[in-house]
Amino acid sequence: MIAADKYQNNVRYSLNDDSTYVICTSVTKSVQLKITRFFIFDIANDKVLFEDSVINGSVAWLNATQVQIYSQPGIVKGDESETAAPGSYIFDVVQQKRIAPAG
Question: Which of 65, 71, 73, 84 could form a disulfide with 54 if both were Cys (CB 3.0 to 4.6 A apart)?
């Protein structure tokens, strides 16, 4: 599977309620940071819809089509665009975009 290729053996899978999408995550821990890399995979169409990483945060299904992504406030990645929601946000797998800040 794609997740094993990307993250080797350190992969965790979380299916949505109707098993149409899966979040694949890999956590790397250091002394002060926990980095969670993840991607959301569309099972029926066999493609990655979205990929990101969060620092000291979490990724979880909010409902069957929305994923809540939480990142520790105050940490801004250098590759984020000005329009990207900082910190926490919700990703909609149907619209394939960030729809709102979480919280």
Answer: 71
- pLDDT, tens digit, for every residue of 10-54? 899 999 999 999 999 999 988 888 999 999 999 999 999 999 999
Range of the domain at 20: 2-100
Number of domains in the chain: 1
